[in-house]
Write a structure and sequence with these properties.
The protein has about 180 residues and is an all-alpha fold. It has nine helices and no strands. It has helices at about 5-10, 15-35, 40-55, 65-85, 105-120, 125-135, 140-145, 150-175, 180-184. The termini are far apart.
Length: about 180
């Protein structure tokens, strides 16, 4: 990412901003899909983040921090999108059509499915810290900076999110008791 492009875009250069968007749209779409688990909501969140970025760009003080700043705008947009989505009366989960091309191995599918179900059981805030820490591979301090929270808070949120993910996966693995076992 070229800081000179950020400076030009900050001055109102539409072409420079378009190049910045083109360089980061794939990464931001992936982050939004991981956080929201909904392709359409993710696209809307990314679009909203870009609109917010264009409007707020003149206020960006450090062009070197553009990517972190843009990621923070995206996360806020994802959280807003999730809040708006909760107000809907009917939601139908649709199968993902743009998942990774994985060889047809039953064990791989089982693990992916297990993780997906575990992530679906988490709150948006829990998924956000896990995406920042494990998908983007950001250090705890940088993830805290992106979210605008203290480092210690980030550590505790990651710890709680992992514990919740483990609990969800463990609960999913437990066998269901039979009717005879429930009556005893």
């Amino acid at each position: 990412m070229d800081p000179q492009l950020v400076i030009l875009a900050r001055g109102g250069d539409h072409d420079a901003f378009a190049r910045l968007v083109a360089g980061s749209i794939g990464r931001l779409n992936a982050i939004a899909r991981l956080i929201l688990h909904d392709y359409a909501l993710a696209e809307d969140a990314v679009q909203d983040a870009f609109v917010d970025a264009w409007r707020s760009l003149p206020g960006l003080r450090d062009p070197e921090r553009f990517q972190a700043w843009l990621t923070r705008l995206l996360i806020r947009s994802c959280q807003d999108s999730r809040r708006r989505a909760r107000r809907r009366t009917l939601e139908m989960p649709l199968p993902s059509i743009d998942g990774p091309n994985v060889a047809d191995h039953q064990a791989t599918f089982a693990v992916v499915d297990q993780i997906e179900r575990g992530l679906n059981g988490l709150t948006i805030d829990q998924r956000t810290v896990l995406v920042l820490t494990y998908y983007l591979d950001l250090p705890i301090a940088e993830g805290a900076s992106v979210l605008g929270i203290p480092t210690g808070t980030m550590k505790s949120r990651v710890h709680r999110a992992l514990a919740a993910l483990r609990a969800t996966v463990d609960a999913d693995e437990r066998p269901m008791p039979t009717t005879a076992e429930r009556t005893i």
